[in-house]
Amino acid sequence: MTQPENAEREAEIRAAADAVARRLGKRRPRVAIVLGSGLGFLGEEVQDAVRIPYADIPGFPQPGVVGHKGELVAGTLAGVPVLVQSGRFHLYEGHSPATAALPVRVFAQLGVGTLVATNAAGGVRQNLRPPALMLITDHINLTGRNPLVGLALAGEQRFPDMTVAYDAELRALAQTAAREQGIALEEGVYCALLGPSYETPAEIRMLQRLGVDAVGMSTVPEVIAARARGVRCVGFSIITNAAAGLGAPLDHKEVLAMGARVATQLGALITGLVRRIPA
């Protein structure tokens, strides 16, 4: 990425942040929540909501995947100022890593300090059977893409430490919220692949040997960009299916249907977590 391209990307982030800020008015969101497939309903639970269509935000494309809306929702959840991203931009849709990470960079520009990322994923670990909820403890990036490639952007670390990409304090708060609500919450390593094809059985056997517990096609670019800007991260996977070779043939409609069975639990869990995040 050249210096002019770098300046263009920074200008895009500022333009998007300015457009959102105008709609926020006096709202100052502390927590951003990225909704994965089947979790759009959580945006409806935001109180005193302001809805900002992606069409009104420079650089934000329309989501092209069933189960993803195209709007930011600002308001409060459990009394906490939040900004909810209902519909993400996947690399497999042809978007660049910079576009996939654009919302997170906008959130950081607006002063958000905590990112809650969610996704639908396949269970790689043999005893991680759908439907289930998994708290992400770490990730492996096998997409072959990284949103930090090129010249460092203003406000970003050139070499961010990813030792604890998923904040230990936030994970402990999530487990506390899960216990208090009687929600079973597994823990594990999430691996992101490029997609859009599901993995082959041979690839799943490889991932098992690498220590992967769940596999999907999102989240990692956003977390990398968030950590480069000093934003704390916590992530959840809805295990919607057993990965290839471990169960029935995979179908996206069935994945959405399975995810819906535990999506409300994850919504309640996120609400309980948000309530506990220190100001």
What would you say this structure looks like, in words?
The chain is α/β, with parallel strands linked by helices. It has a single domain, classed as Nucleoside phosphorylase domain (Rossmann fold). It contains 6 helices and 9 strands. The longest helix is centred in the last third of the chain and has 25 residues.
Class based on secondary structure composition and strand pairing: alpha/beta
Q: What is the 3D shape? A: globular
Count of runs of 4 or more consecutive helical residues: 6
Give me the CATH superfamily.
Answer: Nucleoside phosphorylase domain
Let me know the average pLDDT.
Answer: 92
Order of helices and strands: HEEEEHEEHEHEHEH
Question: In percent, how much strand structure appears in the residues?
Answer: 15-25%
**What's the architecture in CATH terms?**
3-Layer(aba) Sandwich
How far apart the termini lie comes to 37 Å
- Provide the CATH topology: Rossmann fold
Radius of gyration: 18 Å
Features:
279 residues; alpha/beta; Rossmann fold; 5-stranded mixed beta barrel; 6 helices; 9 strands; globular
Write the layout of secondary structure elements.
Elements: H1 3-24, E1 31-35, E2 47-53, E3 71-77, E4 80-86, H2 97-109, E5 114-123, E6 132-142, H3 168-181, E7 186-193, H4 201-209, E8 214-216, H5 220-228, E9 232-242, H6 252-276
Parallel strand pairs: 1-4, 1-5, 5-9, 6-7, 7-8
Antiparallel strand pairs: 2-3, 3-4, 5-8, 6-9
Helix pairs in contact: 1-2, 2-5, 3-6
